[in-house]
Amino acid sequence: MDNGKIERIIDKYPQDPGSLIQVLIDIQTELRWLPKKALNLVSKKLDVPMNRIQHIITFYKAFSAVPKGCHEVHVCTGTACHVRGATRILNAVEEHTGIGPGETDEDLKFSLDTVSCVGCCALGPVVVIDGEYHGNMGSAKTEEVLKTYE
Predict the structure, then answer these.
(1) Is residue 66 part of a domain?
(2) Which of 41, 65, 115, 144 pairs with 86 at a CA distance of 20 to 30 A?
(3) Stated pTM of the model
(4) What is the pLDDT of residues 33-58, one digit of tens each?
């Protein structure tokens, strides 16, 4: 971890607790996770206790205290996607990546999570990879799409 990079992110904002969430978002965007060393630096520079920071990063699902893969895969398991085969899609992703929901592969290539709804029920089942939506998925189509991210 580059402390200089983290300090530059922090220094873009007012040095007070009100900047905390935006600073965490920027660090998460840059590193794809929030390492303990970065959180200690944020705590010191913004004068925010570590227990407050821990509370925030565990409350918001967008934050991760563990390394994430280069490509974040989200499989919708909401009602519309579920009845259209989301379980088969999730199984296809698990077979292709070798990981289950909440996990990241050893190469830090893929992270996998399930979500309750992505808001495009008519396209279900849906897989979102790095913010790109892929609808009307089947097992074979899921495999093809994942190969484009390798």
Answers:
(1) no
(2) 65
(3) 0.79
(4) 999 999 999 999 999 999 999 999 99
